[in-house]
Amino acid sequence: MVWKPELLEFVLNRLVQLVRSGVCFNMGFKEEQMKKVAADVLAFVGVHVTTLQLYNHIRNWRTKWSVITKMKSDRILDWSEAGCCFYGGDEGAADEYIQRYPKHRQYVGTPITNYAQMKTIFTPRFVCKAQLFQPNLLVRAIDFIADNEAEYAVYCKVQPPERRSWLRTWLRNQFPA
């Protein structure tokens, strides 16, 4: 099957809608969710898509996302969030990077298509009762525990289910939806 750009964007947008609706996808999307997306594709373009094709499609995008996050963490090239592209800060930095990693050529100097959708789908999120929390919020909770010895003592004495409850309550109080 040939994935045309419009179809790629349509599928990614449907997956973004699933994520924003509170679907938990830590272990991947479920079969019924993929069947719903496949039915939407059939209604949108009249092309029958199997769930296996959708899973392979997601795997390809996840691979792209892992390359992008690796490039961002390497900090060899400069990243423009507004333009969704990598560029060489120094004149030879981009050429040097491409020589070292020739497969990453497509990501240097050109805007990355569907970056916002990939970011929404593949950025790790922690789900607590259908409320999405970014990892930095959990780091703030851990910092709070570390800074307050009394809270830390109480936190360590309770069982893991109560710890999760405490964390949910603290996050909801600090960052109301």
From TrEMBL:
InterPro entries (alphabetical): Myb/SANT-like_dom
Domain Myb/SANT-like: 3-82
Top-level taxon: Eukaryota
Pfam family for this entry, one: Myb_DNA-bind_3
PANTHER family reported in the protein's UniProt record: 10A19I.15 (PTHR47127)
Protein name: Myb/SANT-like domain-containing protein
Species, as recorded: Lolium multiflorum
Lineage start: Eukaryota, Viridiplantae, Streptophyta, Embryophyta, Tracheophyta
